[in-house]
Amino acid sequence: MVKKELLKVEGLKQHFPIKGGMLGRTVNHVKAVDGISFEVYEGETVSIVGESGCGKSTTGRAILRLEEPTEGTVQFEGVELTSLSKKDMRTKRKDLQIIFQDPYASINPRQTVADILNEAMTIQDSVPKNKRRQRIIELLETVGLNEYQADRYPHEFSGGQRQRIGIARALAVDPKLIICDEAVSALDVSIQAQVLNLLEELQEKYNLTYLFISHDLGVVRHISDRVIVMYLGKIVEIGEREEIFERPKHPYTKALLSAIPVPDPTYEKTHIALRGDVPSPIDPPTGCRFHTRCPFATEKCKEVEPLLERHGSMDDSHLAACHYVEEIESGAMQPKDYSIKPVIV
What we know:
It contains 11 helices and 13 strands. The chain is α/β, with parallel strands linked by helices and about 350 residues long.
């Protein structure tokens, strides 16, 4: 079956100006997202992972134009979002919604749950006025809340319940794509599982598409169809979930996966301890941005930026941005230090 392309991002950049001097002139830029491209197909869940500061949340906000992109294109159902007027974009947001990380900070504490959901339907005019109360009750029941909770305020709910309110608000306007920005990272582990199961049920029921942004690889493995790995504003690897978790190609992806704890005290695994810190996005390294921490880096890595492309027999949908994928896989290249070693975890 041919998959329908819902979202297409090409060459997306998000640079934030740094002001300085007495006149407040722009002296430099924070290159939070620096030229990334990917597609999201209808009905799938694509996750973006990476360390804090890699640009994954900024990517989600730029797609929705909560921050105006510096450069690049964002096409949703063939419509170029970056060229729309603010009025047209506001109308288009009916189809693109976001669930934020903090379920308390993202909703108005002075409004009841009914007011919060009614406001969303009023702005987008998605439900006739005389049917909104009924729709509010339906939404609450859909996300696992009760009718009598409609007239309560956010502070009367737990964190998990508040996140369910955020999900209900996103659903209120019948979206096609929902960006989940660290949607479960602020919740207890048991509550995370409940919310993730709810998101999967809603996806199946309403044919939703998710762009799931998270640093938790355990959560990503549970919910994703495809995974995008970002490092310092760039995409370093894209692939199907099992390809990424079972057969990672990029040294950074391998390092991330090696940090996942295994619930078996006798299990021996290879742990990759990256040295140093993530470089500043104000002045990122030349060539491959990972070369300052990569145990396989050569002079070529310092000078030439690798393309995000298929390597050797890799599946067409599995792409990596590394000059030496085949050499590392075959063992022809060995790490230059002792940061890679078997440990008991």
